[in-house]
Amino acid sequence: MKVVKTIKLYIDGQFVRSESGQSFSMEKKGSGKKSPEQFARIALASRKDFRNAVEAAKKAHNSWNARSPFNRGQILYRMAEMLSEKQAQFSQLFQDALGQTPKLAQHELQKTIDIIIYYAGFSDKFQQLTATVNPVNGPFHNFTTAEPIGVVAYIDAQNFSLAKILNNICSIIVSGNTTVSLLGAECPAVLAPLAEVFATCDLPAGVVNLLTGHLDELSAVISTHREVRSFCFADESMTLYKQMKAQGVDNMKRSALVTNAVPTLENILHFVEYKTIWHPIGL
Amino acid sequence: MTRKKMIKKGSSSSTFTYAPALESSALVKLKKGHQLFINGRFVPAADHTTMNSINPATGKLLTKFSVAKKRDADKAVQAATKAYHNVWSKMPGIERGKYLFRISRILQIRAKEFAVLESLDSGKPIKESRDFDIPLAAAHFFYYAGWADKLNYCVPGQQVSSLGVVGQIIPWNFPLLMAAWKIAPALAAGNCVVLKPAETTPLTALLLAEVCQEAELPPGVVNIITGPATTGQALVNHPAIKKIAFTGSTEVGKLIAKTCAEQGKLVTLELGGKSANIVFEDAAIDQAIEGIVNGIYFNQGQVCCAGSRLLVEESIQETIIKKLKRRINTLRIGDPMDKNTDIGAINSAEQFQKIKKLVKAGKAEGGYFYESTSPLPSVGFFHRPCFISQQSSANLLNRVEVFGPVLSIQSFRTPDEAIAKANDTPYGLAAGIWSDKGSKIQHIAQALKAGVIWANTYNKFDPAAPFGGYKESGIGREGGLHGLLPYLEIKS
Amino acid sequence: MPTIGLKIPHGGKVSIPYYPIDMVNVEERAKSFTTRSIKNAAKLEALCLAISMTDLTTLEGADTPGKITQLCHKAIQPMPESYVLGFKNAADFPAIPHVAAVCVYPAMVPLAAEILQGSGVELAAVSTAFPSGQLDFALKLKDVKKCVQGGATEIDMVINRGAFLSGRYQKVFDEIIAVKDICGERAHLKVILETGELITYDKIRLASWLAMQAGADFIKTSTGKIQPAATMPVTLVMLQAIWDYYCETGKMIGMKPAGGIKTSKQAIHYLVMVNEILGAEWLTPKMFRFGASSLLNDLLRQIFKQITGQYANDELFSVD
After folding, report:
1. Which of B224, B469, B486, C45 shows the greatest Cβ crowding within 10 Å of its Cβ?
2. Helices (H) and strands (E) in chain C — how many of each?
3. Residue B228 and residue C165: Cα distance in Å, rounded?
4. Which entry of B192, B304, B305, B386 is annotated as an active-site residue?
5. How many domains does chain A have?
6. What pLDDT digit, counting tens, does each position of A76-133 carry?
């Protein structure tokens, strides 16, 4: 008799059940429509769970942002190390739940690890490519720096790609933001081992929060929550993106549409705010 | 022969009155009516409707201008689209830059004409149009000209391209300057524009159109359509427009953002503010007073980044208020065309009523109210510089943007309290910090949620310095490299 | 706020506060006074006022009795009636006042006192080993005594910059008190800070406050012997110190920028600044002076232009 596991939510560094107690069944991909094989039960995040996650992310933001960029880079590198150590576990998961070949799984994992390393190496460098000392016409020291914006919601794609998930999460947190991520419905219970990666790499609690649930139930609370300052949208529905953007106007929510899994400077810059500071130069 | 004694005998004081020093408006040739600028030519609106532009210092009619409706907006967008595909997107960056250099030069040559027209139309003192608005507008064109052929440096490691046709809607507080802030980066990045000036201040934008003709800018690259809010709406809703850039109130900005979200248009917004000017006891006090006064009374307080909330360390509150009162009373309120005027007219009857209403409501909530003792001109929309203190953070004048010469004053005890009070607003445009201690300035600057931080200074602007807001003060930056990015498509 | 505690004679203390000044801001504010436009009747009034505020100065090693004599006569009557009658629109010329004072080296005091007797023009002597002040203090005091006895009605002393810049503020303070003591009721005391050596506006503010506490009747920017001498920003800082001192003590102290003010245009900028910082009560020779030499001729030249409508040729107003 197989013991079906329930994959919980990952909020504030803890595995918690949905406060509504609800969960949904996840089937093995390609296990057939006639008698789908249950792979696991997945916690169904409610609006209250999202709210709790945002609270955790907000709390974590000040201390995550106060760390040196060097320190954040070290933590990201360790994240890559932890993922690397768990490669076999992830590979098995992709094979079982998604029916992927070992080769395909391995390729996806290697790509993901490289992405994390990319951002780890960028944590204390991207500032030099975007911050400027502005040559104003007067005796003033004038500089512009990029600052993190706060809590960023991440809406994952329905078509699962670990590389895409980490590309977006890392580009969000590398500059000091914290995130509440809603993983896609087809995500094959990857939340558990992924959360373990976050938990074991010294990433402070609350910096990354992972939820599973139904996007159509949660999109409104995500787009109207005033503490969420920006959202990263990777889902395939352009209609939903536009809708959420319109709803987010109330608190001038920023947003970015990122559907690929290519790590770039631009991805980081989606989630920063520019601050320009003036100071006279005199005696 | 007994000669006139200029200095009164026996009196230790002599009246040192400044005689009116009026700038001549002879330079400006106001036409009876002004038309739309579409595809390089001035054309009337399709249905020939017009609106009045009045001089807020006198209440009298200056001239009439055309009202663009949807048909006109369509024509303008068409012209811009054609110019983009056939000419502007094909032109090498260095050539585009040359047009911008030329526009800047012509603005400098015709500076006085522009300054006079700006003051007549907007009510701002000629001293400000002449020394601030016009030179800075020319500087913006000059600055962005130099970026036109260097776009490959904009985002390291990534290619960029222009967007196409952009719609731009600007406010009445710095009419020509706002036009420059919008048009210069858009053109440098390779886009073509349709610009809608504010309905109370269309004239310098239309004169800028003449400059575009003089500079032989290819027809359709810049189009200017005048009219009320509905003209702007026509642009926001136009399917061929890729991006909207808007500067104005947060209220309208949210509506525009919503429409752009629904239609999949890019948008940048520069909205309202309720910026805090924080003065510590270790500040250079007399200079802080200048910063406070400049922060809220410059341009009659009609500035999005105005330092409209003074947060003063409690230990020096009395000293600051005493000096502030004295300083307010030396501000000369009068005819904008007088070179000695410090405080000009409020931009329009509507804005004037708005300010008076808010001040009345704010006073009714209690506290201590003070206004300048200076005399007001007998005609025109003039409001005395004033302040209110001894209220709480929740009171009206500490929360709502007045957009007038009205300062609210609160005290604080510790730096943490100052930071909390400063950030306690849905806005996040600017902030001022006054202290002689460097490490404290750096600490506070980091903690403030504002896009522009002025430390030991205020209201300083430069084309090289990015400007824009956190939170509900807007999205995106204008000025500098960062102000160029919203006009580009970045490729991975 | 850090303060400097100083002892006063006969017991007691005063404290001089450290008052930070922002340079960039001060210079901007100072510049704003130069864009005020003063025309017509107001300009004519300002020009005459400036003449009445001038300390007509000659401080050359080559000063002779002849030079002093001619200077004193010019001071009493800058534009004699006979001279005016030769001009176009002669009837419209206003009464040209005499200057406020003549300013000379100690050796020239007796001669100048004799000529200026009863004229209404004061006699200012630069004293205390002007301009450097680098002399034994007892000898500096002797210098002051001799000037006052010789008929000087005003003493322009220099502060001990060596002591000031090395932090020996008590010494600077004591020296001013001692000089003031000698001046007594007979002469008013101007204290020269020599701002061109103090460099920062913070120090200039400190020195201003110290001088006023020590009994200065006037604070003065410079000796005019080094650059920079008087500037608008430096004067602004000192004017603001005067205002704050007045608010705190009720005492009105005078201001004298000296050196580098050559044109009427500059003089009017200063008057605008005094008007807006201190107000009408200071717009009188009793509270404000220009330490200048060639300024007087330019003021006369501008009055000429105003009344006749013509630009004067150099020869008309170029000789003492």
Report:
1. B469
2. 13, 10
3. 64
4. B304
5. 1
6. 999 999 999 999 999 999 998 888 999 999 999 999 999 999 999 999 999 999 999 9
Query: How many Å lie between the alpha carbon of C88 and the closest alpha carbon of chain B?
Result: 15
Which of B23, B118, B128, B270 is catalytic? The answer is B270
Candidates A238, A242, A266; nearest CB to B158: A266
Single-letter amino acid code for the residue at B431 = A
Its CATH class, for the domain covering B33-271+473-491, is alpha beta
Residue B304 is among the residues annotated as catalytic for this protein = yes
Q: Using CA atoms, how far apart are residues A169 and A165, in angstroms rounded to an integer?
A: 6
Give B65's strand partners.
B34, B51
Q: Select from 3.40.309.10, 1.25.40.10, 3.40.50.2300, 3.30.1360.120 the CATH code of B276-462.
A: 3.40.309.10
What residues of C are labeled active site?
Answer: 156, 220, 256
Rg (Cα) of chain B, in Å, rounded? 23
pTM: 0.91
pLDDT digit string (tens) for C229-287?
Answer: 999 999 999 999 999 999 999 999 999 999 999 999 999 999 999 999 999 999 999 99
| Ordered DSSP codes for B343-393 | B---S-HHHHHHHHHHHHHHHHT-SEEEE------SSS-----EEEES--T
Its ipTM equals 0.90
How is residue B248 annotated by DSSP?
S
Per-domain residue ranges of chain B: 33-271+473-491, 276-462
Three-class SS state of A153: strand
User: All domains of chain C, ordered by start, with CATH?
Assistant: 3-316 (3.20.20.70)
Contacts for C247-250: CB closer than 8 Å, 24+ residues apart: C247/B322
Burial of residue B188, with CB atoms counted within 10 A of its CB: 0-12 exposed, 13-18 middle, 19 or more buried = buried
Maximum distance among all Cα pairs of chain A, rounded to whole angstroms: 82
Mean pLDDT, 10 residues at a time, over chain B (492 residues)? 65 58 86 94 96 95 96 98 98 95 95 97 97 97 93 92 98 98 98 98 97 98 98 97 97 96 96 98 97 98 97 98 97 95 96 98 98 95 98 96 98 97 98 96 97 98 97 97 96 80
Tell me which residue of B377, B427, B360 sits closest to B399, measured CA to CA: B427
Query: DSSP code of B4?
Result: P
Give the number of other CB atoms < 10 A from CB of residue C57: 26
Give the gap in angstroms from C-alpha C75 to the nearest C-alpha of chain B: 18
Contacts of A254 in chain B (CB under 8 A): 475
- Whole-angstrom distance, CA of residue B421 vs CA of residue B296: 18
- Distant-in-sequence, close-in-space partners of A212: CB < 8 Å, separation ≥ 6: A7, A9, A42, A43, A44, A45, A182, A183, A185, A187, A191
Q: Which are the contacts of B89, defined by CB distance < 8 A and separation ≥ 6? A: B162, B190
Confirm or reject contact between C36 and chain B (CB < 8 A). Answer: yes
